[in-house]
Amino acid sequence: MNNFQDFFSHAIKQFLTLEFVDIIDIALVACLIFFVIRFISDKRAGKLATGVCMMLFLVVISYIFQMNAINFIFSNVMQVGVISVVVLFQSEIRSALEKIGGAGQDLKMLSVSKEHKNNKNKSAGALDALCKAVQELAQDYTGALIVIERDTPLGDIINNGTPVGADIGVALIKNIFYNKAPLHDGAMIIRNFRIHSAGCFLPLSQKNDITKDLGTRHRAAIGMSENSDALVIVVSEETGTISLAVDGKLRRNYDYNSLKKTLTKYLYDDNGKKTEEASASAEG
């Protein structure tokens, strides 16, 4: 009990000696903790984080009350704790670092080369052709999985597919996803408003709350959007439903107009740059 009282006496003494810089320091730490909790709250890492917090709580309790046996066990476990956390949270840590690394971009889309930035008509035409192709695939109940690269480079995904290197065209996209074509089961990767590769394999989401009605394509789309900032379009071959996965969230029931409007919003600046051209394109 004396150790418990000493702990709180020390804590009160430190609180009374706080300076302005200390308050700023505490506020920054609180903000960091808040964003970490918000980041993992809707991911499977949330349960792992709860387990880690419980272990830390037991370490503090064992230290305060001098529980030597449990304190010895946890002290040895904590020596490899950092490595364990990195292993357990590798996908979440990677996702967070990728988003931090792309936070300073002026545009939301990294994958627009100088040539395409200077050629707005070409990018608008490519987006229009993509949405038309998706709409026609949905009408024909042809399954499709299309990934649009943004800030996060997808070289590791591209390398496991077949290089295409062609302009976006309605007929080409429909031929690639034709159910007897050799590449139809994989994903198509779009980079710089061009079809870069096809037949690519995507990481599947490990979420447990995904409805059983969704198949492998939808789980792959969610998994890809969890591991990058890519926009992933899915066409269901069973229902012809068009879906879009962004940041680990799947939104369904798009048509040509709503898909084009949503892609325009994500691929172009919100501050007005290119908005006039994008709006005109969406109306067309």
Indicate the topology.
Layout: H1 2-16, H2 20-41, H3 45-64, H4 68-79, H5 81-88, H6 90-101, H7 114-117, H8 120-139, E1 144-148, H9 155-158, E2 162-167, H10 170-176, E3 187-191, E4 194-200, H11 216-227, E5 231-235, E6 242-246, E7 249-254, H12 256-267, H13 275-283
Parallel strand pairs: 1-3
Antiparallel strand pairs: 1-5, 2-4, 3-4, 5-6, 6-7
CATH topology of the largest domain: YojJ-like (1
The rounded Rg comes to 25 Å
CATH superfamily of the largest domain: DNA integrity scanning protein, DisA, N-terminal domain
The count of domains is 2
How would a textbook summarize the main sheet? Answer: 7 strands, mixed
The average pLDDT is: 77
Head-to-tail CA distance between termini? 75 Å
| CATH class identity of the largest domain | Alpha Beta
Question: Which stretches of 5+ consecutive residues score pLDDT under 50?
Answer: 103-118, 270-284
Please give the CATH architecture of the largest domain.
3-Layer(aba) Sandwich
Structural class label: alpha+beta
Work out the helicity level: 55-70%
Number of helices: 13
